[in-house]
Amino acid sequence: MVKRRNDPDRRDRIIDAALSVIAEGGVAGTSHRRVAERADVPLGSMTYHFTGMDELLREAFTRFAERVSERFTARLSAVEQREQLASAIVELVHEDLVAGPDDLVLTLELYTLAARKPAFRQITHDWMRRSRAVLERHVDSRTAHKLDALIEGLFIHVSLDATPHGRDVTRDAVLRFLSA
């Protein structure tokens, strides 16, 4: 009888390795072989744990979106008064949404994949729904919807602009939005 190697964390390692490979080379540069190498698992583990690349990508991006949502929720759940909301959003944009070095790339890769493949849109819809639900603790649903979009735009600009604006500009934008 052949004894099987006990590796209960293998599936999780593969998902985390997939995120690392995606951040490094994009979805287009992600293959079963590269992920297996990064996770340090046999290539056959890929088909044992996932029916194909789409399932692996869905699992990886779902995990990523949930991690970012947890940071979003933690930051905004600490807000007790509406006056604190702008400060929390500034910290969210300048700290929490870029907490990991790969967060921007993974966010943009997910958005691109969701734009191309409707099956991946549910991940972004769920992510937005969670963000809006947290924002709705502080503002009405219509404002939460628009504020969520503002936060995303500010995050992208802070991350990609050749001369990114500071916290004061973010605070001003949020305060103007909230007072409109």
UniProtKB/TrEMBL annotation:
The keyword DNA-binding applies. InterPro entries: Homeodomain-like_sf, HTH_TetR, Tet_transcr_reg_TetR-rel_C_sf, TetR_C_31. Gene3D superfamilies: Tetracycline Repressor, domain 2. The keyword Transcription regulation applies. Residues 8-68 form the HTH tetR-type domain. GO terms for molecular function: DNA binding. This is TetR family transcriptional regulator. It comes from Myxococcus fulvus.
